Amino acid sequence: MSTVLANQERLRIFGLLSPAYLWLTVAIFLPLSAMLYFSFLSEVPFGDAEWSHTTENYEAFFQTSTYAILLWKSIRLGLIVTLVSVLVGFPCAYVLAKVIKGRSREALFLLVILPFWSNSLVRIFSWAIVLRGNGVLEIGLNAVLPFEVDVNLMFSTPAIVIGLVHSYLPYIILTSYLALQAIDDNLIDAARSMSANKLTILWRIILPLSLPGLLAGAVLIFVPVVGSFMEPRILGGRVGTYFGTVIEDQFVAVYNWPLGAALSFILLAVVLLILAVASPVLRRAQT
Amino acid sequence: MSGTFLARLGKLWLALILFFLYAPIFVMAFMSFNASQYYQLPFEFSLKWYEKLAGNTEIIDAATRSVGIAIITTIIATILGTAASVALFRFEFRGKRFLQVMLFPPIAIPWLITGTAMLIFFFGIGLGRGTPSVIIGHVALALPYVIVVVSARLATFDATLEEAARSMGADGWTVTRRVTLPWISSGIIAGALFAFAVSFDQFVVSYFLSEPGDSTLPVLIYTSIRKGFTPEINAISTIIIVVSMAVMLVAARFSNFGGER
Amino acid sequence: MNKPIILAATLAISATGTAVLADEIRVLNWQGYGTDLGWAVDAFSKSTGHTVIHEYFNSEQEMLTKLRTNPGAYDVVLINAAFTPQAQGEGLIGPVDAASIANLADVPENLKGNEDLNAGGALHGVPWTWGLTSFAVNTNEVDELPTSIEVFWDTAHEGKVSIRDDALEAVQFAAIATGQDINNITDLDAIEAKLSDLMPQIKTYWGSENDWNQFMAAGDLDVATFWSGSASRSMAAGLPVQFIVPQEGAIGWLDGLSIPSSSTKKEAAHQFINWMIDPEFYVKWAAEGAPASANAKAAAALPDDAFNKRVLGDPEVVARVQFQRPVSDENREKYLELWQSLKAAQ
Fold first, then answer.
1. What span is annotated as the signal peptide, if there is one (chain C) (predicted)?
2. Is CATH 3.90.180.10 the right assignment for the domain spanning C3-130+253-306?
3. Contact between chains at B87 and A13 (C-beta distance less than 8 A)
4. Chain B positions with Cβ closer than 8 Å to C
């Protein structure tokens, strides 16, 4: 009797779960495996192309310094964007969670998160409009400031950083906010009653307790930024060549899919490494 | 808080952030109402870019396609995702933790990698580019969001309710239909809206998978931006932003996203 | 809801049907390059019933990859003759039926018989237009018209220079600046050094004509590489620019219209190509600004003060032009690597 039930239950679990996971397998896991296989081919194996197995796509990464430079450039961009987002976003999350009270908090929080769910491409495009020379930024600044300024940020690294921070800032605010909200106000009050100063409270209580949320947000920002290609393309101009744009080129222009696959996997390895390093902290954040 | 000065400074900071987040979007939208093709100021109000847009069949086709893909994605992802969430919530079994972890790759791996991998795979199996490939990709990206949102709602579910229903003689299916689903319906609606937003805003995966002449709206915008942009793109972007923000506002209402109430 | 799918199904059915009168043809070209002129396409549709849809590329590399990865998607494609042999060799394009293109009769033998367009022993690209890749200056920003390509390296224009993000074009441009044969580059190191010096001068890469015009209109650029046909169009549109063929020379190209081997609407494609090399179309196009026509009748019909007669009709200018020839796979890879490493170092 019990085995029949167990079987029935197993069947039900299988029936409920398999469609979703089958879908993920076909759309995510098989493609990733196919890409891994591709990265060891000499040519795109469609049509009557001749191809063989090779490791030269990975060797190409090490043969010239080009790819390593670009990968480092992308990682550095990821670090800068993450750092700026943390410095800007954490205080904002703190204000939301601990300073603002009552009904307005929810509305403000929603207002901060909302742009994140609008099209990122459109937002990058907005910055392209704002940052152009003789653009709105310049006109706006000159209207406010008593002296003439010549701002032409378009097609520069700062432009890329601004665009990316704008895209990913809501992540860090969201995760930090959730972590900060979980901190018991009584704890802070207690510390204050023991005449701990503000810096001590921040350093000894608030930061350690909200660290998991902060790190989760940082990872959520860092990972996509390292793989970004659309933002540098639109905002970067001459300095807009990154690891992501080179991968895009392999697939869209140069038609060297095997090399593109190998470069993608190297990027994936970096991302996984970072996730692995961060995962103990992240797991703590979940509980 | 004792330091009112600090509190005020904090609020000012928040205001600055909101300005930073919204100003470029407003500028972009503002420019869609400006007559000059080269975005020249002074501002001269005109609806001509919206009129042009109304006559641009390419953009309208892409917009209809984007909405169609988003609706199909939403339906599939919501059904599959809700089913999986119920199973993950209701049953204890070996490998459950593993299955939960498996939801992260679609979210955590950069879309550039997932997108190019899909391109390779779909070409390898002969499906190639096109709307079916785009839908397969979008559903996979939306599924984890649906599962996370529905699971969160399920977590608040009181199991004794089900038990009560069962003790009154309702069978498993009836319990699910009359008790469980109504309870989690707000979660399902929120999940569906998230799925819609994920699909409607998705650019990277669509970029690699959509077929020439059958591109989605974001892909069309990207190619247009690279060819030098016109205020027409501002006009369509303004419409997109209004649509996706409206969808998210509704989603937020249903998902209780703003934290404790 | 299922609209795209239903639409695709109906399209598939109508494509297989035999008695199809009106086709929808897809043309792959640079943006703003003749085939997508609204009035021309409308007139073509009215006369033949076929509708035309455009898809654009930003580089020849991208064009080839679009053909490779989207079989059946295109019916007419513009290919620079220097790339026709490669496209033919990969089986991307098929031979053109000369008999069904009446206007081909007015194309001179030397163009019709062009070795590259006749890759594989048959005509694979219908000679359409030719012109120069040189540069143009913004006359609002540059007082005296330069005569030398060295203006790109003049630090007075730092951050106000642009070229296209294209390995081959960048390398050939530097070949001209270093006094080399663009089709037989012997000193690649000199080119690398020259381009490396150029990089800090560059503001951004331009991607299309529209893009280029916007930069010039906004005063973002002083000097940028450009195509002769596009330059004549920009000048006709009233932009403050002047096209220059420097003493060092310029790159010449011949563009052909080809039909992808995977096209399912070859008949309509031939009709469209015929329409595009028609003198009547060309003269109208040239009034707005166009490259030089390959059709002798069309070229003759131009007024004497037309840009193409003035600039390209000058034998002294033509003597300085080096026409592009196909590039070997090996060289192409070398150029790509060089260009990529230069970009990466920025």
1. 1-22
2. no
3. yes
4. 38, 58, 64-65, 68-69, 71-72, 123, 128-132, 211-214, 223, 226-230
Query: Tens of pLDDT along C231-273?
Result: 999 998 889 999 999 999 999 999 999 999 999 999 999 999 9
| pLDDT greater at residue A26 or residue A132 | A26
Chain C positions in Cβ-Cβ contact with residue B127 (cut-off 8 Å): none
Question: Once rounded to an integer, what is the mean pLDDT over residues C59-65?
Answer: 91
Q: Are strands C51-56 and C93-94 parallel, antiparallel or unpaired?
A: unpaired
Q: Which residues in A lie closer than 8 A to residue C68 (C-beta atoms)? A: 255
Report the predicted TM-score, pTM, of the whole model to 2 decimal places. 0.89
Token pair recorded at residue A188: 């802070």
**B129 to C69: CB separation less than 8 angstroms, yes or no:** yes
- pLDDT at position A5: 61
Q: Would A99 be classed as within a structural domain?
A: yes
Backbone angles phi, psi at A100, to 5 degrees: -85, 130
Other chains touching C, judged by 3 or more CB pairs under 8 Å: A, B
CATH number of the domain that residue B71 is part of:
1.10.3720.10
Measured CA to CA, the distance from residue A176 to residue A220 in angstroms comes to 12
Number of domains in chain A: 1
Partners of residue B225 in chain C, C-beta under 8 Å: none
CB neighbour list of residue B46: distance below 8 Å, 6 or more residues apart: B33, B34, B35
Q: Note whether B250 and A153 are within 8 A (CB).
A: no
Read off the amino acid at residue B150: V
Residue-number span of the structural domain to which A238 is assigned: 64-286
Q: Does C181 touch chain A (CB under 8 A)?
A: no
Q: Are C219 and A134 in contact (CB < 8 Å)?
A: yes
For residue B129, being part of any structural domain is answered with yes
pLDDT in the model for residue B260: 38
In a domain, B6, yes or no: no
Summarize pLDDT for C120-168 with one digit per residue, the tens: 999 999 999 999 999 999 999 898 999 999 999 999 999 999 999 999 9
What is the mean predicted confidence (pLDDT) over B19-26?
91
In chain C, where the domains are located: 3-130+253-306, 131-252+322-344
Flag if C337 and A73 touch (Cβ within 8 Å): no
Q: How close A145 comes to chain B (CA, Å)?
A: 18
SS3 C249: coil
CATH number of domain containing A248:
1.10.3720.10
Average pLDDT over residues A91-103: 88
In a domain, residue B17? The reply is no
Q: How is domain C131-252+322-344 classified at the CATH fold level? A: D-Maltodextrin-Binding Protein; domain 2 (3.40.190)
pLDDT at A285: 55
DSSP symbols for C192-212: HHHHHHHGGGEEEEE-SHHHH
Asked if residue A9 belongs to a domain, the reply is no
Closest chain A residue by Cα to residue B79: A20
Reported as a pLDDT band with limits 50, 70 and 90, residue A232 is very high
What range does the domain containing B230 cover?
A: 56-255
- Over 70: is that where the pLDDT of C304 sits? yes
Which of C58, C68, C345 minimises the CB distance to A255?
C68
Paired sense of beta strands C250-260 and C93-94, if any = antiparallel
User: Does a structural domain hold residue B9?
Assistant: no
pLDDT value of position B92: 82
**Total of domains in chain B:** 1
**Mutation target among C7, C27, C36, C45 for the B interface, most CBs of B within 10 A:** C7
pLDDT digits (tens, 9 = 90+) for C170-213: 999 999 999 999 999 999 999 999 999 999 999 999 988 888 98
Chain B residue numbers with beta carbons less than 8 Å from the beta carbon of C73 are: 211-213
pLDDT tens profile C14-58: 444 434 468 899 999 998 899 989 899 999 999 999 999 888 888
| B15 touches A at CB < 8 Å | no
